[in-house]
Amino acid sequence: MLEKAGWTLPAGKDIREKNGQPLRIELSFIGTDALSKSMAEIIQADMRQIGADVSLIGEEESSIYARQRDGRFGMIFHRTWGAPYDPHAFLSSMRVPSHADFQAQQGLADKPLIDKEIGEVLATHDETQRQALYRDILTRLHDEAVYLPISYISMMVVSKPELGNIPYAPIATEIPFEQIKPVKP
């Protein structure tokens, strides 16, 4: 695929070139996030195997969010919002210029159609139509390789044994205190 696009690997070099320019891209991440840093290093190593040079940009959280808002990134880590916001609110944010998703989709030829379908999927009450629209939107984004699903963060709970089993809430930021049944000593 890279060869077809004109990115060739010159003899004796590790990085592909096109018209004399190296295949170089930046990957931005929150520098204090150990998981993101580890994933960034793995992506960097994997990309080098195909002849792409990935520069890692680890910055403070506010700088990364500023990059997401104004589109100053080649690649950037971004998480979905999780239940109950996925997929409705998450897709809706793709139409707003201050979100990384909007910025990442700017080069897509069918961006206006994606935005139109997002508006339709949010307004329809017809479940069959909603499923078809979601399928079309997500297929378009997948086919364009805008997103690379690489991780899912698991929830962890640490508690004293006296509290018994601690249930997980469907929303990562909530603790279902009403469901906690302490164990009697």
Helical fraction: 25-40%
Count the strands?
A: 5
Question: What Rg, in angstroms, do the CA atoms define?
Answer: 21 Å
CATH superfamily of the largest domain: Dipeptide-binding Protein, Domain 3
GO cellular component, one term: outer membrane-bounded periplasmic space
GO molecular function: peptide transmembrane transporter activity
Domain Solute-binding protein family: 1-98
InterPro entries: SBP_5, SBP_5_dom
Would you summarize the structure shown here?
Helices cover 36% and strands 11% of the residues. It has 185 residues and is of the alpha/beta class. The strands form two sheets. Strands 4-3-5 form a three-stranded parallel β-sheet. A two-stranded antiparallel ribbon has the order 1-2.
What keyword list fits this structure?
185 residues; alpha/beta; Rossmann fold; 2 domains; three-stranded parallel β-sheet; two-stranded antiparallel ribbon; 6 helices; 5 strands; 36% helix; 11% strand
3D architecture notes:
The chain is of the alpha/beta class. The N and C termini lie far apart (64 Å). The model has no long low-confidence stretch (mean pLDDT 91). Helix 1 links the parallel strand 3 (24-30) and strand 4 (53-59). The chain has helices at 34-49, 61-70, 88-93, 100-104, 111-123, 127-143, and strands at 17-18, 21-22, 24-30, 53-59, 75-76. The chain is globular and about 70 Å long.
Topology readout:
Elements: E1 17-18, E2 21-22, E3 24-30, H1 34-49, E4 53-59, H2 61-70, E5 75-76, H3 88-93, H4 100-104, H5 111-123, H6 127-143
Parallel strand pairs: 3-4, 3-5
Antiparallel strand pairs: 1-2
